[in-house]
Amino acid sequence: MEDFKYNFVNITSFRLVDIGDVAVKQILKDIKNYGHHIYQSPDFSQHSRKSFSFESEPALMYDSVFVFAMGLQTLEQSHILDIYNVTCDEEIPWNGGLSLINYLNAVEWKGLTGPIQFKEGQRIQFKLDLIKLKQHSIVKVGEWTPHGHLNITDPSMFFDSGSMNVTLVVITILETPYVMMHYGKNFTGNERFYGFCVDILETISHEVGFGYILDLVPDRKYGAKDPESGEWNGMVAQLMQYKADLAVGSMTITYARESVIDFTKPFMNLGISILFKVPTSEPTRLFSFMNPLAIEIWIYVLMAYFLVSICIYLVGKLSPIEWKYINPCDLNNITIGNQFTLSDSFWFTIGTLMQQSPDIYPRAISTRIISSIWGFFSLIIVASYTANLAAFLTTERMINPIENAEDLASQTEISYGTLDSGSTMTFFRDSMIETYKKMWRSMDNKKPSAFTTTYEDGIRRVNQGNYAYLMESTMLDYIVQRDCNLTQIGGLLDTKGYGIATPKGSPWRDKISLAILELQEKGEIQMLYDKWWKNTDETCTRKSPSKQSKANALGLESIGGVFVVLFAGIIVAVAVALFEFWFNFRYNYKAKPLSFSNSLPPDARIVLETNERTYLQPKRCFWIEIFEELRYASWCLNKPKRPELNRVCSKCKITSKPII
User: Fold this and answer.
1) 200 with 528: CB under 8 angstroms?
2) CA distance linking residue 549 with residue 393, whole number of Å
3) Dihedral sign, CA of 419, 423, 424, 426?
4) Is there a smaller number of Cβ atoms within 10 Å at the N or the C end of the chain?
5) How far is CA 331 from CA 320, 325, 326, 543, in A?
6) 486 - beta bridge partners?
7) 3-state class of 291 per DSSP?
8) In this predicted model, what pLDDT tens digit does every residue of 13-51 receive, in sequence order?
């Protein structure tokens, strides 16, 4: 093999004789010494000192002779051997042949070719050494047995770091925007694929110095371990079986995967997040101006208004300072009054709350204390209401049923799921956090409807509504920037990274890791990220809440309730005015005495002056009185006073009683 050692020739072979075994070494040493003593040849001796090779056929012959001798020796202990010459001309078998075959099948011995044991004439329990040619020697890299098959003990020996013009087999999986595919007939080979990871792979191949053949993984899965059978699938299985040299894509570095394959340094950091449909805007209510304060606060304020009004009324009655003389100069009719009547107390309280100046001013210390405390209370309530009013009227509020993973786990109306056989599924399955364990039980009970085969299926279900999709944040960011109907809920549930996967012991891992670190320091990976994630031609225009609040003007739907309150107050005031006018007309309005002219006879005037006079109430119409009042109001718009109207008609009757 001297001619092949230094030319990077890849030679792999199986070896039956384990030359590293102690017993084999002793046998080979005896054979070498035997040859040295039997053949007194200087050439043989010189050749044996340089190197000693032992082929498989002599080893099999050596073991065969020993097995035959051991079987014959055992046969001789139980039978008398009758040996005679046999001939091929006559078909006369040897009588001890069948017994010898049985004893040979029972032989168990360790020879040059390893453990020797037979079953029904076939050799079992043997092994073959897998060897490779290296520059220094032939080295053992694994074993093969009939039951365990191939077991590679040193995978690094299959990769020669000094080789040039190496073409690696790279497997991937289609995932937008990491790896995408052209389906046209004009694209062949590696030209079929494009995307973020394809650009990274192309850059790394130039940095490290290798070629590659890019192809899709057969089962279209990243790789997860079956908890029942323990078998891996997807790209992980392809690397474990050495069917590929690299696996490139949005493949997450996890503990389970790292235990069976190797990963490079992460070229992208990410975490699990929740993809959800953008919540609908809260419908604008007519009485939105009441939103700054909760309904219970409005009730408490109303109760406080009634309580303070009644307290002012009672305290005003109890305090002697609030009582004053009405006509202090009229000594014959001394009358005292109080300004805090029940109606005036309510008017004073509401005027203070509305920050108006009522015409009633408390004079007693007790009433002033209540008035001050109520003024302070009104100041705080009005200031708090005013501060929140602008935010509630100008900011568009969203009805969001979930805010984080805890909200998602504690409800049953919104379904949720993740990608099947992915790292996100493994995270929830193996998590020890109670919230995530609860979410996994929910998803596992709804299997397979909770899981999707591709990200596209999950995004489609989210757009249909009432479904949340658990996915990696980088992919979620790509989708959200292109679909303004979708949004991210909450923060990251964990922290992890994407890496390029290699088989165990691959020398390409360290070289690619160094290349990734160099690309990160140069900012080339960030430029590729901006190229595929933030392309302005593909991203949608999402309204910013801060900008939207500045640009939006208040519409009638926001403050229309104020106009409703205004018109309702006007209607109530008119109704109360009509009631007051009716009450005054019906009960309090008396007929006025008639003014008689001087044309009447003197005796008549005397009789009228001396006799008892009784005036009958005229039969007037209520609506006519209202009409007369409105007509005067329309004629005398600027007059604060009016003369008292003489409502006298021809039907007025005067009855007199003569004095006896």
Assistant:
1) yes
2) 9
3) positive
4) C
5) 20, 11, 11, 79
6) 277
7) coil
8) 998 888 878 888 888 888 878 776 666 655 555 544 445
